[in-house]
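Late entry, evening session. Most of the bench is empty. Finally got around to the prediction I had been postponing all week. Sequence below, unchanged from the version circulated by S.P.
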Amino acid sequence: MSRQPKKPFRSGEWFAAPHRSDMAALYLERFMNYGLTPEELRSGRPIIGIAQTGSDLSPCNRIHLELAKRTRDGIRDAGGIPIEFPVHPIFENCRRPTAALDRNLAYLGLVEVLYGYPIDAVVLTTGCDKTTPACVMAASTVDLPAIVLSGGPMLDGWHEGELAGSGTVIWKSRRKLAAGEIDEDEFLQRACDSAPSAGHCNTMGTASTMNAVAEALGLSLTGCAAIPAPYRERGQMAYETGRRIVEMAYEDLRPSRILTRESFLNALSVVTCAGGSSNAQVHIMAMARHAGVELVPGDWSAHAYDLPLLVNMQPAGKYLGERFFRAGGVPAVMWELQNAGKLHGNCMTVTGKTMAENLQGRESRDREVIWPYAEPMMQKAGFLGLSGNLFDFGIMKTSVISESFRKQYLSRPGQEGIFEARAVVFDGSDDYHDRINDPALGIDESCILVMRGAGPLGWPGSAEVVNMQPPDALIQRGITTLPTLGDGRQSGTSDSPSILNVSPESAAGGGLSWLRTGDVIRIDLNAGSCNALVGEEEIARRKQTQPAPPIPASHSPWEELFREKTGQLSEGATLDFALKYRAIARKTPRHNH
């Protein structure tokens, strides 16, 4: 007896087309030209989409061109019909002016494919930073059964016997270059040595963080996120993912049953304990809003600050992706949280079981990499939300605050966690690179470097440019880190304790627009405040009499539309008009002829 789905498959509206045999013929006939048969498409079996994010233009996700073959095998063996299709490429390293422009564009394209074509369920292939939120956002808007298949990190990079983590090695090497310890050829070689195989960043940068988030949300099979791309287990996971999505199609297990406030709070906890990327704040907020889940910027401080750092992985720690995988990966981190009573274990997942059921027996055996919750690497290692007269919301990743930074800025007797610094303001990264070594700026240990014009409107897209290093002269004296603040983002592979994602940005009239070099900024981590010590009357005078920072013109139709429709980083930088569209696949589109 053939299986019956919990709900009729929507593909039947195309290939059976009740009362419209002419339309069924039209929908069927062109699929015949590469060898599919009417019997397959009209069999009542689910049509499973494979949302292919891999391409030559997306090296971090290129592994999916191969993994899709195993995914197809799993879909076929479980009784589904696979149909693979492309997703707009996103490549963090190479896209100019920033890949942040492409997350929302990929989201829009994927929504239209999933809604407008005869797809009953979908495998979302992810890897590079923004492919994960783009795919998850689209899956929520359409609300078809969906499962995330990560491509996995690269193998560990090595340079002259030392671990070379993708991204992290670049930020460390540019300090060595400024100090005169290496030359440009050595700089390039260090960077190239960090990328030894297929896969995304092998550090706990934004890519590893966002794939860990997908698993923490319950959207991936248990253990999926951390498997290195070249490992045999990655192909095996692709096969099992293909099998499972067919069962999800029959069960009608949709994102709306999995994505809840509790599952998002689980994700916040995992990001903290893993030492994850500050970019997670933007993307998690965007995914939650598209899922219709109430999440507010303050949840980062309320639910993800007072948690420990457990994962000893760059940039907050020592090791890279291979060791993290062998130590147990994301399930081992969540096991620690669950046993400490810090996890919502009753959340539904794509396995059809609760998260608590998935985590049974997942304790780590490698305590150099995944530390016990009771004996962590660092206490209170989460993301601290800040506000004040310069912005309504900014976020600081505290797990990368070094001992030297803490001693210099956060350890004054009676003023622990509080410091004041003289602002040196830059209008975009070109201005920073042109002037950072200008002796006239007088930059010393008492300064904070401020980057404005780097947000969704100002860049446009929001750029990873806030992790600014000190002038060469200071680095040569051994001062490798200054406080930094900005209305853009920074790479998730950076070890800079910056104040990031400041909202509203300067281009939207935020406080950075009136800030001037020489103003003193007071930062109080205890109170979660950040204020320029400038009087209200002076602020009002500046707003009236001084020109706003320059905003570059849009250079493409999408840049113009992005600026018109995109919100601030604090709210996920979403296309706000799109938030009202949810579960749109419940109604089948009208016929096209």
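Two things to note before I forget:
The chain has a mean pLDDT of 96.
The radius of gyration is 24 Å.
Will write this up properly tomorrow.
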